[in-house]
């Protein structure tokens, strides 16, 4: 078997995503308990609500992709009432993402899947969407923290 | 020549990045002229300043990578005094990024380069940083727009 040059390997893309998820975890931790559930800017969602969106995407999406199981997007899971509850869910999702990632052959990234019965795109585009959507919402969390007078973690900390 | 499965091709990664850049362009356009240069939340930088950072990274970074030319990061370029000036710089950078991307062999993405004499990482990690950093700051721009009572473009518009 010869090795062909790749833009990025499957392993490195998972490391990249989990690095971002590790930074998002630090942002959750940086919020005061009350502000995590109550604070926002400009009528936007709280960081707890944004985190619920991220939890409804990452692990359930990877599971759906690997099992080719088209299930509707569901953000109504109860993630608990404390930051500690959300962090525990976050860590559980970390393990699930690693598990399902390992089951997805590299050949499948270019295949189309109808994620949540709504997003019919190549799997790689769905994966980039998970990462970009998280970076996007986390960037909003940075503004919330700054507006609260709290120094966010460095962007390059993973 | 046999084709080996790839997580993403070089062409698709450029399309992905330029799709993000197209969305950032729409966010610049969405700001009222004055607010682009003056508005911010929580003592953060204005969206004009954030855009200057993005302009100081994208095209200059790709040029540095392709030419293996280690030049310090320089955000002091005069990008003009109007949104139209910034948009013209943005479009020029779009062409430059396409140009230099075409000159970078896929074999080089795993090679290390000391970007701006500061960030010694595999080139793919630097490229992901350009994209993620843009998504991060653009997410902040979304909060500025919401705080101004302006509806931002849809995140999936590219």
H/E topology pattern of chain A: HHHHEEH
Supply the number of structural domains of chain A.
Answer: 1
The gyration radius over C-alpha positions of chain A equals 16 Å
Q: Mean pLDDT across all residues of chain A, rounded?
A: 95
Please summarize the sheet with the most strands of chain A. 2 strands, antiparallel
Percent of residues in beta strands of chain A: 5-15%
Alpha carbon gap, first and last residue of chain A: 34 Å
Low-confidence stretches of chain A: none
**Overall outline of chain A:** globular
CATH architecture level-2 label of chain A: Up-down Bundle
Q: Pairing-aware structural class of the strands and helices of chain A? A: mainly alpha
Question: Which CATH class of chain A is shown?
Answer: Mainly Alpha
Helix share of residues of chain A?
Answer: 55-70%
CATH topology of chain A: Four Helix Bundle (Hemerythrin (Met), subunit A)
Total beta strand runs of chain A: 2
Largest interface summary: A-B, 43 and 43 residues
Report the oligomer. Answer: homodimer
General description of the model:
Chains A, B: It holds the Pfam family DinB. Chains A, B: Belongs to the DinB family. Chains A, B: It comes from Flavobacterium azooxidireducens. 2 copies of one chain form a homodimer. Chain A is mainly alpha-helical. Chain A has a single domain, classed as Up-down Bundle (Four Helix Bundle (Hemerythrin (Met), subunit A)). In chain A, 59% of the residues lie in helices and 5% in strands. Chain A contains 5 helices and 2 strands; from the N terminus they run H-H-H-H-E-E-H. In chain A, strands 1-2 form a two-stranded antiparallel ribbon. In chain A, helix 1 packs parallel to helix 5. The radius of gyration of chain A is 16 Å and the shape is globular. The termini of chain A are far apart. Chains A and B meet through helix 1 and helix 5 of A and helix 1 and helix 5 of B.
